[in-house]
Fold:
Amino acid sequence: MASTETGPAAEAAGTADGPEADAAPAPAPAEEAPTAAQPDGAQPDRSGGDLAGLEAGLDALDTKVSDRQPWLRTLAAKAVPPVVAIALVLGLWQLAYHFELKDHYLLPSPVDVARSLQDKWLEGTLLDYVWTSVSRGALGFLASVVIGTPLGLLVARVKPVRAAIGPILSGLQSLPSVAWVPAAIIWFGLSDATIYAVVLLGAVPSIANGLVAGVDQISPLYLRAGRTIGARGLTGVRHILLPAALPGYLAGLKQGWAFSWRSLMAAELIVNAADLGTGLGQLLEQGRELQDMSWVLSAILLILVVGIGIELLIFGPLERRVLRSRGLLVKS
Structure:
């Protein structure tokens, strides 16, 4: 009896000590302890690392390159291409003169034109011709800005006005400026008013259309945000509309200056009177009357130089500054 009782007990004891001891799990490593405490299906929290990586990427985008090219290399990169182009034009011009594609009195050499400019300089009249035209062009352009800006805003923001005047502005912009000269002479006679009228009629449509195009490119979100903060009427125009439309408006100003300069030359070619003073257009007409091609080409060269100079000194830097302030142009 004792043997029968001790057998099952010993067998049960052997079962409890053997299999349960074998099935007991080994202790987990210290690194995996936090993972075991997470609920089923939970992922490790990596938002801190992702945010740090995002901040590092944004900092890298904002970091400016400190390396700067030597000023000689920068100057060479900007000056060499136009100098090469000018040298090429002068070389082709000299070849045309050398091989007499036209008679020499019809096609003078670059040296002849330079000598004509030197004569005007020594006479002390060259700067007077340039100043007369530049002052007229600047005054006419400023008047065009004063008239074209509110007109462009009115057309851009008032739908009935746009439907009525918009096509007329586009038509006036495509109309050659010289077409206004006969009408202006009839209206105002041979006076400065005729010249300024032609300049206004040539430049105002370009400035107004440029502003209209700039306003059309504004995101509606900006306008709604402006109305939300109370920017309405003239305040909204000053602080929301014009700053947002500035790139397109600036393009219209550049085109308006080009049209005003062309209109001025067309008016000065035809409106010629002793009491008006002599501008570059009138200088060009005098060369035509004297059949002096060196004189004519000198006047054309001065007109070209003034136009390029205004673009490089005023509108080019202004446009780059506006585009760079909006992130549309990056310094190299």
Residues 1-39 have pLDDT under 50 and may be disordered. The chain has 15 helices and no strands.
